[in-house]
Each structure stands twice: as C-alpha cells, then as structure tokens.
Amino acid sequence: AIMKHVHHENLVRLIEIVENPSEIILVMELAMTDLFAYMTTGQFRPAGRLPENEAKGIFRQIVEGESACL
C-alpha cells in the first residue's frame, strides 16, 4: 500500500486497509470540503464560474499532490 506512505498537504491520507473475503475497506482521512461540489454547484461559495486566479490555485494544488505520488 504505497498510499499509506505518501504524505502531502494536498492529498487525503490513507490510514488503514481492512480486507475480508467479500470487501476491501479503505480508512481515509476526513476531507472537510468536496472539491467537485465547490467548483461546480456553488455549494460552498456563490454559484457561477470560479475566478481564474482561484481555479489556477486549485489546479496547482492538484498537480502538486499528484506529483507527490510519482
């Protein structure tokens, strides 16, 4: 489980993996905001498009998090 060893501020942390014959359970850190809902529905901000500067900041964080996995 490589993800148990990856620690980055922009990634949700995998805490534990529990397996039994019928399922695999991933115990993960709680994320306080749903990024997809934030960007598309206006659930956490006024509805509409994200300002370019905010979108760039979110994209940068995603790329930084992904690069931590390489």
In short:
Helices cover 31% and strands 19% of the residues. By secondary structure, it is α+β, with helices and mostly antiparallel strands. The radius of gyration is 15 Å and the shape is flat.
What does this structure look like?
There is one protein chain. The chain has a two-stranded antiparallel sheet with strand order 1-2. The protein has helices spanning 35-40, 52-67; strands spanning 14-20, 23-28. Strand 1 (14-20) and strand 2 form a beta hairpin. It is flat. It is of the alpha+beta class and 70 residues long. It starts with 13 loop residues before the first strand and ends with a helix. 31% of the residues lie in helices and 19% in strands.
Main attributes?
about 70 residues; alpha+beta; two-stranded antiparallel ribbon; 2 helices; flat
- Secondary-structure element series: EEHH
Strand content: 15-25%
Structural class label: alpha+beta
Mean pLDDT: 78
Question: Given the C-alpha coordinates, what overall shape results?
Answer: flat
State the separation between the terminal residues, measured CA to CA. 14 Å
Strand order of the largest sheet: 1-2
Helix percentage: 25-40%
> Segments where pLDDT lies below 50 for 5+ residues?
none
Largest sheet: 2 strands, antiparallel
Rounded radius of gyration (Å): 15 Å
Number of strands: 2
DSSP summary: helix tally: 2
